[in-house]
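User: Assemble these into one structure.

Assistant: Restating your components, then the assembled model:
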Amino acid sequence: MPLSQSTRNKLKTVSTATICTALYKRGLRNQMIQDVRPLDPSKPTMVGAAFTLRYMPAREDLNPVTVFQDRLHPQRKAVEECPPGAVFVIDSRRDPRAASAGNILVTRLQVRGVAGIVTDGGFRDAAEIAKLDIPSFHNRPSAPTNLTRHQAIDINVPIGCGDAPVFPGDVIVGDADGCVVIPADLAEEIAAETVEMTAYEDFVTEKVFEGRSILGLYPATDEQSKIDFAAWRRAKGR
Amino acid sequence: MPLSQSTRNKLKTVSTATICTALYKRGLRNQMIQDVRPLDPSKPTMVGAAFTLRYMPAREDLNPVTVFQDRLHPQRKAVEECPPGAVFVIDSRRDPRAASAGNILVTRLQVRGVAGIVTDGGFRDAAEIAKLDIPSFHNRPSAPTNLTRHQAIDINVPIGCGDAPVFPGDVIVGDADGCVVIPADLAEEIAAETVEMTAYEDFVTEKVFEGRSILGLYPATDEQSKIDFAAWRRAKGR
Amino acid sequence: MPLSQSTRNKLKTVSTATICTALYKRGLRNQMIQDVRPLDPSKPTMVGAAFTLRYMPAREDLNPVTVFQDRLHPQRKAVEECPPGAVFVIDSRRDPRAASAGNILVTRLQVRGVAGIVTDGGFRDAAEIAKLDIPSFHNRPSAPTNLTRHQAIDINVPIGCGDAPVFPGDVIVGDADGCVVIPADLAEEIAAETVEMTAYEDFVTEKVFEGRSILGLYPATDEQSKIDFAAWRRAKGR
Amino acid sequence: MPLSQSTRNKLKTVSTATICTALYKRGLRNQMIQDVRPLDPSKPTMVGAAFTLRYMPAREDLNPVTVFQDRLHPQRKAVEECPPGAVFVIDSRRDPRAASAGNILVTRLQVRGVAGIVTDGGFRDAAEIAKLDIPSFHNRPSAPTNLTRHQAIDINVPIGCGDAPVFPGDVIVGDADGCVVIPADLAEEIAAETVEMTAYEDFVTEKVFEGRSILGLYPATDEQSKIDFAAWRRAKGR
Amino acid sequence: MPLSQSTRNKLKTVSTATICTALYKRGLRNQMIQDVRPLDPSKPTMVGAAFTLRYMPAREDLNPVTVFQDRLHPQRKAVEECPPGAVFVIDSRRDPRAASAGNILVTRLQVRGVAGIVTDGGFRDAAEIAKLDIPSFHNRPSAPTNLTRHQAIDINVPIGCGDAPVFPGDVIVGDADGCVVIPADLAEEIAAETVEMTAYEDFVTEKVFEGRSILGLYPATDEQSKIDFAAWRRAKGR
Amino acid sequence: MPLSQSTRNKLKTVSTATICTALYKRGLRNQMIQDVRPLDPSKPTMVGAAFTLRYMPAREDLNPVTVFQDRLHPQRKAVEECPPGAVFVIDSRRDPRAASAGNILVTRLQVRGVAGIVTDGGFRDAAEIAKLDIPSFHNRPSAPTNLTRHQAIDINVPIGCGDAPVFPGDVIVGDADGCVVIPADLAEEIAAETVEMTAYEDFVTEKVFEGRSILGLYPATDEQSKIDFAAWRRAKGR
């Protein structure tokens, strides 16, 4: 079930927080990629289907600098194969002591039209990556070459990232709060539902700024809240 | 012993670092809320008496999304009851894997005149909260709804926050270094003492920028340092 | 083997990531000071020979506030003795629960011409330190006075900092990714090699922005990549 | 809903692992008290209703050794009030750096007929406590007096222990794997169900020792497994 | 390169510590499976070729208890397919909050002739597993069913276990210190070398008990040490 | 102030828990070596003056296996120089990922009459070390040679061990709860005081086993408790 343009567009307008609540209603509690943050929190929301790369711990004799001379090295191969519009998600086993990737690879992903990149480890050249247009998320900057601790071993298999399960094709959404994983077959309905939820949250925020109490308003247990919201939607055209 | 306006005003002009030193002189070593940071480090210093909320781990069957339809739910009740001028302090058991609160509740606290909010967990909608006028402090952004891991259970009881003891009414001061807890009955004398200490530190900083050695100056073991400081105070009117 | 001006100048133009790769080629995998970040990531690259200070855990009876009245207290003595151009490196045993130093000491280091300061603990007055010209690196802000947990015990001995070995005289380089430790006797050759590597990386980045694949280019396994790079160097005068 | 003798007796014959599976079927995933172990793993299974004690971080001025001269000190009061047959559960905020209790208090609990004690911190005099008849569970031994880090603040309120929610009256079961929390109103049905599950597990274990594959047997997807189990029950009188 | 009986027999007589030193001489520093311990430290040394199972984080909707009714479920399939003489190694992402396996599966492995089992998570029914003949290693006991946090996803692929790289066929050796991973193609030479090293270590231990200094003896920098060792070997027939 | 035989004998009869309380009364809260345990908890209490060894992180090029051929290597030198009756304390920076020492060195310490050994890292050959007569304490077993992560750099300097300050000559006491550090100049008075405290604790334990409440007894706020204790002492001859 590929990610439709319509679903992508909707998800770009909602927050990871709202998505988490929608997933929670369905019994999904561990879809947030834990302890990962945007290199540039001011970027627009990232949306795309997951294309994954799995790292295992590096063994010294298998990881001289020369391994990258092999065009089939999984890290380099994955960077060239990740589809435009996808989000490149790396399972670094929550280990940021060596880099998951650096500026050149992330730039290549941007040029190839990839929608974003996430690792539960860290990026090197973090300041340069932050300035790129492509949204990027990691745990913390990490200068050592990835060979120091990581060996790329599998492309596009199910992985863990920040303690969350990620299956290829799951939809990744990232904003200033971090990244959430929407199971592929739920993406469309979550997108629709969260657009609606967001309208109500925006209405509530406006009313709260105007001085209204959250009781009866958030959630809308007072009948008046529902009436006011309906009026607000008409007025706002949402 | 309520926090007087005079004490509040004094504390707004001093740093958490200076307060920690004053507390240290009295044998209080664990008053810093550990590993908590401002969402917007450029905000003015936060000062207020602690109003507390205690979370326990959430049990799935007790925490459907519908619990918030109860107007007496402790989280929502606490937000409506926290006194203007107070600091809302949440014991999230140092667990940022789910949100302690989000943008709407924090906005409501701001509108109600609350002086600030602190959790040793994390906030969702962190970018929006950072833009509010109310100062806010947490460990890291966290999008999952608080029901995922937290159940609000007690209002305004003694709690731990970031390994520091917090009693209702203790005075919380927060700046770019984080938040410190001043026992209520010490607030006035700490305020007075730290204003004095700050004057000396400002004098020292100025002299150090002018090239003077810290030896004999910081602390003032040279008689000349005391003489110069007296002159500086007169000149500055402090 | 003192750090020459020429080596210092070269190192100011390269990244910690590139240096890590050069060290990795020589079998040195643990030279990155782990989990340390710049207080102001926009500062120029820090370069200098390490001058070290070792902290041990503080014992309450030995660390009243009055210890700083002793002009020979190792922390204060070290600040006055650190040579201009050096980097002041503190072994805080990766414990940021109390400050490694504050604004006044760091200002004094700046005035004395010190090139930078690094701790694997935290600084107090972090916002002020960030505004100084001197580059500074720590784990996170920490307001409690260093006496709360740290006792300065040794000046300019070999230490650990962020799990990396640091010998006095080793060359410390710091940028937005953090700080790396170059063994003193390797500094000159690493500087020369990384300047060359940086030229190639800049060339690659430019080509990748232009749309070229990384395969055959990074590393330069295609003959054409080498030819193009030679032309690029001539054109750029590098 | 008090714990009946019949339910208690049943729970004494089943394992925490089996109970966890029964809770999991009901959507309860966080009922295991994490990272807690028996001081003597060879003791019989502990069963009892939770009587709780909540610790907050200790403040130095409030916790001189003399506080225990107060007969109303919550720690001492709780030890004298915990009902016979109950399990004494302490919320130590997962901090074993100071003791949750020591040999004398645990001995008193034993003499008073208490069924067991659990903390997510540590006990002092651990070797002596291990030799008592009363089952005890902690994270690791910890000699410092509890005043060093803990202040008893609340008796028999809902708490967290090892990241699990514990409400007074919940049924705690402990064996070599650790401790699990059964919500009070589920205890009877969980006891009944796990006795049944245990019978099947014992049958399976016997068959596996005899050489049978787990496929079709565990779980019983082969019809023959059900037939054999029925025969086994008749033969064993279970 | 399958593990020969001769190599297996040699490795059963040496320690993981000696093997680590032999690997260290070859530049392999990360072959110890970190933070894993035997359930019964008194068992003989475990030796076997790695057969691996990879877990990813569990997603709630994909992991009802009924998944085990599928005979092709990778966890159950792996248990039936692991070759006799092999060591079953599970990548649990260092997460012991739910079980990696329990008594029935481990018993089945024993009956099938498997040489041992290792996880960097935890086992449930730990006391029963400890009593089996098959050696077992984990981080700590963990009662919750593995579905709570783990989903078996891949059989016999390269994995990480306790931060060490494990390729299928690598030779796993386990004793009271834990488990070490010998790359398959080094097993024979490491076995031969460590048998020799062990002879010398046994000789040294005997001499040290007799009162000899370690200087010149360990390592054998004194000529006399070598002469004495040669005599000792002749006397002992080693 | 050397440790007298009389003080040593007294300390052998008291527990680390009682010593911690006596230190706490003097304002010393951080003297417990955190997260360290005996390899054999059934050994008699260890007592001796601290002789220290400091490790820094290992740098690969400085730590080939051949470094031990140098008779002046600090680790080997320290083992030969540690005085009989002393406790050998190693600062391993709380890193047990490589061994602090192994069986041969610990055996040599035993033969030389050393009173015990403590590291905040781990020992290799842990099962053999546990069987020696010399008491030993560590975090967990660790097979990799110490060169993998540690370089011995300083002998008998002030160190941190398990977050506690250790000065050469401080008195280390170790039992099943772990190890505590008594400042050298307090050892005699702490020994005297804790012998007295232990008498009272033994009396209390006996009374509690007989059924007496802890209120009024522990601490002795009831006059009767003091009278009974006096009688008990006379009867027991203590």
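Residues 95 and 121 of chain D are 5 Å apart (CA to CA).
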